[in-house]
Design brief:
By secondary structure, this protein is α+β, with helices and mostly antiparallel strands. Helix content is 40%, strand content 33%. It has helices at 2-28, 36-53, 57-61, 76-89, and strands spanning 92-105, 109-121, 128-142, 145-155.
Length: 161
Amino acid sequence: MKRAATQICLSNLPRLLAVATACLLILGGCSEPQTEPEEQVRQLLSTVQDAIEAKQRRELLSFVSPAYSDAHGNDRDDIGNLFRVYFLRQNSIKIISSIDEIRLFGDTAAEVDLTAGLAGSNDRALGFSASAYRFEFELVKEGDDWSLVSARWGRLGDELK
């Protein structure tokens, strides 16, 4: 009797796995859907991260609005110079980031809170440097593209400036 029951269970295993997989896919799809602007912002952040790791300063500046300003007194050119200095000091750059929150204001403005760990190899004594930061970005949609208009940042645990 046990052998017959085992054979019945084994013969149903592929069906059970298919049903379990379907349930997981359905439940995975039940998470809150992202809006189109949110998807665009997430894609922008991913593209920016890739550009930083590839040290593509010009591409990065294409995402910074000509109207950019921040509490440090930086404008778009200053941000470009910060990237230039950082890229010259690092042989390679790796970023691990986590989007903490995206706040949308209609379809044309967004604020993003992001935590990022940055590591770079360089020619210093240890051969690398690493830091963790919190960022707050203000983005606006100019035409079809999102642009950075302001940012605040600080080392993890410090006040944002």
